[in-house]
Amino acid sequence: NVRYDKRVFVEVYQPFGDTAIRTLHVAEHRGALGDFERWGTDTIELFPAHGPSGRVASGPALHRFRVQHDRGHGDEMVVTPWEVLFGEGVATPPEEDPWDEVLVPEVRTLEGGDLDPEIHFAPFEDPGAPILARIRRLTERARAGERPTLRVAVMNVNDRELEDAIVEAHRAGVAVRVVHDGRKHRPAYDWYRGDDRLLDAGVPLLGVRRPGNGAMHDKIVLYDGAELSTGSMNLETGARFENHENVLFTREPTLLEAYGDRWVALAGGVHRARTTDDDAPVSVSFAPDEAPHRVVGRLLDEAEAR
Question: What is the domain partition of the chain in residue ranges?
């Protein structure tokens, strides 16, 4: 229902010694300047004196552009070289970019797998426990010589047990990638420090910033492309034991494909145009670009007319 002719991001990389803060900023179209299009963002924030766990910047902040564009043979993500954005010193872009290799969809359909969903509700039960169990199974597979993947997109990570499991999976060889809301890197957010623990351990972390007050509010965990968990829950202690939350686990192929594509788009990959099939048994719509409120409104109108 949407044609993505062009999407533009500004990607920012600020090194802090043995780690770095990396953010992806959605740019907005701001008209033409002669024969050129103008795109911009007001969301870039740099805190060179307030890095992860008290670190200070070890070099200048870098930036590059990611542009989704069709140059005649299908949509692709055109990426410019890193350039200095702010600061002095030697520019040190990442030598082996941990994000380049994951910006393609990943779906694995297991033969004979159970497609019935598994659902958990907090605070009546701990929905973090089945998440932990699945991450630990990936860790054991990595220790046995496999290379499974763990792709996460949540607004916030702030639970010691879940943080430890993610770090352990990363160290065991699971290809872990975590997308979260980029505002978490502000020094004022010192009461949310799960991201610092992940960065300290070398887990690839990407903060996404939307224009205005928009948030990266998806909750997606993909376990080696074969299973999905989604719902209302961030990876937080309060979400596990205090809030009213829900988490759904599923291996349903349509959902795996939709959420897998969504994760790639969040991480700066190509966003594929999708259509909504009203007659399909499963249909997915993501805000803000696919306007799910219109889908819900249409369904309500149809229900009232019956």
Answer: 6-92+109-274+283-305
Lowest mean per-residue pLDDT among 55-64, 145-154, 290-299: 290-299
Question: Which DSSP category does 284 fall into?
Answer: -
Instruction: Provide the pLDDT for residue 7.
Output: 86
How many C-beta neighbours within 10 Å does residue 95 have?
5
CATH class given for the domain over 6-92+109-274+283-305: alpha beta
Report yes or no: 260 and 230 within 8 Å, Cβ to Cβ: no
Helices (H), the chain: 128-143, 160-172, 194-200, 237-241, 253-266, 292-305
Could you give the C-alpha distances from 2 to 45, 209, 272, 273, 288, in angstroms and in order? 30, 21, 9, 6, 11
Please tell me whether residue 76 adopts helix, strand or coil conformation: strand
Considering only residues 84 and 36, tell me which one the structure prediction assigns the higher pLDDT.
Answer: 84
Three-state SS for 259? helix
pLDDT tens-place string over residues 22-66: 999 999 888 888 888 888 999 999 999 999 888 999 999 999 999
pTM > 0.85: yes or no? yes
CB atoms within 10 A of CB 201: 17
Q: Which residue carries 């224009």 as its tokens?
A: 211
Question: What's 272's DSSP letter?
Answer: -
